[in-house]
Design brief:
Structural class of chain B: mainly alpha
CATH superfamily of chain B: MetI-like
CATH class of chain B: Mainly Alpha
Oligomer: heterodimer
Largest interface: A-B, 49 and 61 residues
Distance between the termini of chain A: 55 Å
Distance between the termini of chain B: 29 Å
Number of domains of chain B: 1
Strand order of the largest sheet of chain B: 1-2
CATH superfamily of the largest domain in chain A: Periplasmic binding protein-like II
Strand content of chain B: under 5%
Helix content of chain A: 40-55%
Amino acid sequence: MKHSVSSVLLALIVIVAMLAGCTTPVVPQPADQAAGAGDTAASTGKTKVTWLTLSEWPGTDSVAADFMVDNPDIELVLEKVAFNDLFQQIQIRLSSGSDTPDVVSVDVPLVAGYGVRNWLAPLDDLYTPEEKADILEAAYAAGSHEGSMIAAPQFTSTQLLFINKDLFEQAGLPVPGPDDRLTYEQIADLAKQLTQDTDGDGVTDVWGFTWEQTIRIYQLQAMAASLGGKAIGDDGLTAEGVINAQPWVDAYTYYSKAFNEWKFAPPSDVDAPELFAQGKLAMMIAGPWQIQRYSTMNEGAGPGFNWSVSRHPYFEGGEIVTPTGSWHIGINAKSKNIDAAKRVVKWFTTTKGAELWWRNASGDFPAQKSVLSLFQTDPQFEKGTFAYMKVAADEATVNPVPRALTPGFLEYEQILQTTFDDISKGADVQTALDTAAQRIQRELDKYR
Amino acid sequence: MTKAEKWVPYFFLSPALLLIVFFRIFPAVSGFRESLYATSFASGGVKSFVGLQNFQGIFSDPVGLQSVWVTLRFNLIVNPLQIGLALLLALLINQALRGIDFFRGIYLLPIAISLNVTAIIWGLVLNQNGLMNGLLRAVGLPAQPFLQSPDQALWSIIMMASWVGVAYWALFILAGLQGVSQELYEAAEIDGAGLAQRFIRITLPLLRRVLVFVLVADTIANFLLFVPVLILTRGGPQLSTNTLMFEAYRRGFVFGDFGSSSAMIMLLLIATMAIVGVEFWLLRTGE
């Protein structure tokens, strides 16, 4: 028996040992950081600045190279992370107190959350009065927390309805024009007619309609807002009674039916922009960056079918509202290279860098008025599908509604993401929203 | 034995013990300490001692309670299932049947594939328009929402985990089976013992040590199972696969609430130790 007791004790120690590795956060450190990234590189005499940013943006390396031509004493290293992992990477690395990355791409609704955690360095002295005047006022305000600017505006955004004209014509349906604005009810009617099982095997081959970011509040909030639903309580910390109120229930009942009853929307894990590019999706709400993508794909030949855009939809009898907000750039408050990092941020968010990024990198809408004005004067936007950029530029001014202003946006967004995923898979809308409201409220209470 | 010689075993053990202390025990203690603190964001991210509040929070929060229930439900099903099937598989492989050599080669394939890849492949197989539903449609059966339905998602995870686990644990049981002397079976057969009697009286008692190891190790592995949940369901649909391990990950690495996350890990640690202690007691040899 003595032997048996000692065996148990030994086994328990081993179990503790095996479990223990799961208890303490591990901060990922890319190999190049271990070698002292951020410090002045002895061999080159350059100051190394690391920027944690999105991997999905094309052409960012070429713009970074342009920056280094203008700033030969700085080595700018882009650490690219996929969209779905970026927020978590920022959260883990900045919360650990690490001095890298020096610069981070910041999704604008997260500014308040990063602000209350003191993760970002103040940037109030970044711009001259003229440079500040060139930035859209709403974007500048969105990058500020408690009166201090902590994230410099890089982009703003809007959403359009992308249309596969060929599928409409094959179905004998009138193609909405660039200035038409459909209601969600009209979209449902059209989408039902456009959804097809072409080979009769019981599996849909051509889908009627969906959203680019199918389960993200960025795109979906405009639905509830169109019916008068608020994003969050006025104090920025109340979810109960707001996100499970009637406008939300009505808006996302439509969303649920699109997947489960009318079945014109593909499953939520499908890559909608890719499905559209393959000609298997008739309508999609997506950002203007897709105009650049579809216009330039196949060496400028386009996706192989005729496509166009129309205005962002709304509910019949509801208000016309459009999504807005986009990426800013912030500086890690613990960075050892704040001055060099500020030069990076300034270059990318003022005239030359902003224009180069917009033209050669992601194609996102710039937050600088001088670059936005190029839509009206640049001959590139007079021809072909690039001209839809002008439609987008105009749409960006139509009642844009920012996302919830709350320091708990990360939690709010993540919980709603799983909620929309559940609703798209058939969960009862009211129950799902009630559960989401409770969960979000629990998280928001941490900020009171 | 001289006084110096007494220290020799400890000297040889010291590298392993030091590694365990620094990389396992120390993080566990540190995790326990973290579980007693909470960060108040209203006061600029100040960390303060809250005692056992993070633990109370798990049980007062419906999501925390749900994750405890999902973890228990998952383990109550998956551990007996995997060990039962692993035992059957090991007994089968141990037989001298025609073509068994070929089967002995292929049954190990699930172990040779990384769990991440396995989860991604199963995700494609169980997709709404995936291979499994294609096969169901081909034989005239309706397609199933394997990963989309809250009633089926946990079972899909159990199936995927068992696809890997059964083959893996069967390997250990097979080693145990091959250590049983054939003479014992022959003697029992001469004495008139049937197949069932030989299994109950000879095989099971002599497999006891191996089965204890498999039971303990399998329980720990399944309590900590994370990858399939992260890749296939992310705790959904409707929190039906939201295990404690995944909820701890979500709270720590997604929401930045390391106090609550550490409390969940401590709870997992305590629960696992308790269950493993009971397993040891149930399978004690009586020595």
